[in-house]
Design goal:
Radius of gyration: 17 Å
Number of domains: 2
CATH class of the largest domain: Mainly Beta
Shape: globular
Oligomer: single chain
Order of helices and strands: EEEEEEEEEEEEEEEEEEHE
Number of strands: 19
Distance between the termini: 19 Å
Helix content: under 10%
Length: about 230
């Protein structure tokens, strides 16, 4: 969810003297088909061409915008070869034993790595991974995708009300804004656990309660958020 900010922030460009390169994250999203099975379409919202049984393993090459087959869910999975599945029919694979390695280590202190491909947020203390969780980043679309970059947390609101085009949501806890147009790490209580790990927000990085609370305790104003594919 992306809130409307009434008072703007000056743009910040973060340049660090030295990054420690590590292995790049995998360039695919892995998951499975939910218990109801999934229709496979020639285009988002187009003609159904086949179906997938419940439990079928899938690899998503890209997320695209399409008709909302379920409430406020415009996210479709591109499976390649002209095959598309609505994201409501998919479930993220279980979290790996170790987090996907970020392309760079961007701080010697506390920071957050947001892997948009894997939809995993990892908290780091320098080069040491402390905690990882499934997140929901911005859904496909020019006005809703989460912006790539290295962003310092600008301000924090413990209990926020977020308002924007088509939404007005109170009780958004642990909100940590990191871009000038109000993208933030925060609690996302309106999605179920089955919906975690897919791009579903208006630009923010949404987390379950325990993970959002931990990120609130771990990060602070000035902590970096590294958003990358």
């Amino acid at each position: 969810m992306k809130a409307v900010i009434l008072s703007g922030f000056a743009a910040a460009v973060v340049q660090l003297a030295a990054y420690a390169p590590v292995e790049a994250a995998p360039n695919q999203w892995n998951g499975s088909v939910s218990g109801a099975g999934a229709g496979v379409y020639a285009a988002p919202g187009g003609a159904q061409i086949s179906s997938l049984d419940a439990g079928s393993q899938v690899v998503v090459s890209n997320w695209v915008y399409g008709p909302a087959l379920t409430s406020d869910n415009y996210t479709w999975a591109d499976l390649g070869d002209g095959r598309f599945v609505h994201s409501a029919a998919l479930r993220h694979a279980p979290l790996p034993e170790s987090p996907p390695a970020p392309p760079q280590i961007v701080s010697s202190g506390h920071w957050a790595d947001a892997n948009l491909t894997q939809q995993i947020l990892t908290l780091y203390d320098g080069a040491v991974a402390v905690h990882m969780s499934l997140m929901n980043s911005g859904r496909p679309g020019p006005d809703t995708e989460t912006h790539l970059g290295i962003w310092p947390i600008k301000r924090r609101v413990a209990d926020e009300t977020m308002r924007g085009d088509g939404y007005d949501i109170a009780g958004v806890l642990f909100t940590q804004y990191f871009t000038d147009d109000a993208e933030a790490i925060h609690l996302n209580y309106w999605l179920s656990d089955d919906e975690r790990g897919m791009p579903r927000s208006h630009g923010c990085l949404g987390l379950p309660y325990a993970d959002a609370a931990l990120a609130w305790r771990f990060l602070d104003v000035g902590s970096l958020v590294y958003v990358h594919p």
